[in-house]
Amino acid sequence: MASSTASSAPAASLERQLGLGRRGVGLGLLLAPADAADGPPAPPPPAMPGILPLRGAVQHYEWGRSGADSLVARLAGCGEGGADGGRPCAELWMGTHPAAPSALAPDVTLRDWIARNPAALGRAVAARWGGDLPFLFKVLSVAKALSIQAHPDRELAAALHALRPATYRDANHKPEMAVAVTEFRALCGFAATQELKEVLMTIPEIRELVGKEESSKLLRVKEKDGGIGVRSYLKSAFTRLMTASEEAVSEAVSKLKSRLNSERKVRALTKKEQLVLSLEKQYPGDVGVLAAFFLNYVKLNPGEALYVGANEPHAYLSGECIECMATSDNVVRAGLTPKYRDVQTLCSMLTYNQVYPEILQGVPVQPYVTRYTPSTDEFEVDRYMLPPGKSVTMSPVAGPSIFLVITGGGEIQAGSMPDNTKAMEGDIFFVPAHTEVKLYTSGPRFMQLYRAGVNSRFLS
User: Fold this and answer.
1) Is it the case that residue 15 has pLDDT exceeding 80?
2) In this predicted model, what pLDDT tens digit does every residue of 85-140 receive, in sequence order?
3) Is 119 exposed, middle or buried (CB count within 10 Å of its CB: 0-12, 13-18, 19+)?
4) What SUPFAM superfamilies does its record include (predicted)?
5) Distance (Å, whole) CA 35 – CA 42
6) CA dist 261 to 198, 206, 236, 264, 276, Å?
7) Sequential DSSP letters for 358-404
8) pLDDT tens for each residue of 57-75
9) Nearest residue to 177 (alpha-carbon basis) of 65, 310, 276
């Protein structure tokens, strides 16, 4: 393994082959050993690079978009010339999660590089999160509904990982936030009591599966009662629905479909009724079609964001978004999916809170930059919208960042880099802690970028 002071011709040649030298990233820095317990004292650690170019990892889930219709495919270049093999390009991952870590070079992942260069995280971040990047940055291109799901809190995540590590691959929680790039639709959180009463009164197919006793409890409850009593009734009714037999669910969905298709000839269907008919086409006979009536139906316009905390039910339905979350891939699913369903776990873990989710508009932090700050420490997201001929500077922060160029192009200058680097659509850059970043647009188009970083409240 090369030392951190290596300067031989072969090393320089390899740098050029990997495209690293032009970005100010030395091969010795990439391959510096994590420690040197034996032998002479190690030389001083090299200075942090200004930026590191990354390659994200594309996930080919069946709900994703394909070819030119997929933002993920366009950014990653996986749709060009059929390079994706015709598979949907659903998610682009940028981070250090072991399931799909980003790469700096063919044999060097960002996770490995950070392990050898923990100073890139900043002292507070390295101490809090064990020397790893605390957030996972993604782009989602959604053609059909994702599963009805929830993400466990830390305690449950640890228990699930210990019990079924093949399904729940890590022990971390997974709060997440989606920032809409296009119009983005989702189900999120349980509907208010009055809406649930209307569901039970007007959707006989659901009332039959929930049962007369559980339906009556919810129908009799008063709004002012609130609290634990309502949550208890809601939990019982939702669990009865989600655990109904496949045969009963299939029959109920079939009846619902026939009834709504008949009624639409004489009345306008509600938005929720239109939604469940579209979900039935995607997932025929699935209990998730019926479960949608229990959840809030949310539409985000570009630039609006949705935060989802632990143990809250949700399902992304359509559109494209930037997503950021704690570094985890734990998902408990129970409907609208061909994947493994853990229905009992999902029904037992949910909070059953009935609050319409807050739509985050973001807060301007300087011209052309809007920040979305969730309640969790692990992450925040900045949206940059730079007009032609403009520039913006991100002052040094005490934690790491990842930048992604969505549209347009320009240049990026960071830290002690002597030269600017081109920043074009699809480019991804890792920026170490305490690094100033300057962005410049070029050409006639707006340059749209997103930055993921550690929550500023934690760093302040």
Assistant:
1) no
2) 679 999 999 999 988 999 997 789 999 999 999 999 999 999 999 889 999 999 99
3) middle
4) RmlC-like cupins (SSF51182)
5) 8
6) 20, 17, 30, 5, 11
7) PEE--EEEETTEEEE--SSSS-EEEEEEEPTT-EEEE---SS-EEEE
8) 999 999 999 999 999 999 9
9) 310
- What's the rounded mean pLDDT across residues 135-158? 97
Domain 371-459, CATH 2.60.120.10 — does that match?
yes
Q: Confirm whether residue 149 is marked as ligand binding.
A: yes
User: Measured at the alpha carbon of residue 90, what is the angle toward residues 85 and 92, in degrees to the nearest 5?
Assistant: 100
Helix 212-220, helix 227-242: angle, nearest 10: 150
- Would you say 366 is a known binding-site residue? no
Q: Which of 333, 341, 383, 451 is catalytic?
A: 333
151 is in an annotated binding site: yes
Question: Does 185-360 match 371-459 in CATH topology?
Answer: no
Q: Does domain 185-360 have CATH number 1.10.441.10?
A: yes
Q: Show the tokens assigned to 155.
A: 């305690």
Active site residue 333: yes
Query: What letter would DSSP give residue 34?
Result: S
DSSP 270: P
3-class SS of residue 230: helix
> DSSP class of residue 145?
P
176 labelled binding-site residue: yes
**Lookup: tokens for 205:** 């197919």
Which residue ranges make up each domain of the chain?
1-46, 185-360, 371-459
Give residue 85's pLDDT: 67
Taking the alpha carbons at both ends of the chain, their separation in whole angstroms is 38
Region 362-385: what's the mean pLDDT?
A: 97
**Looking at per-residue confidence, does 223 or 26 come out higher?**
223
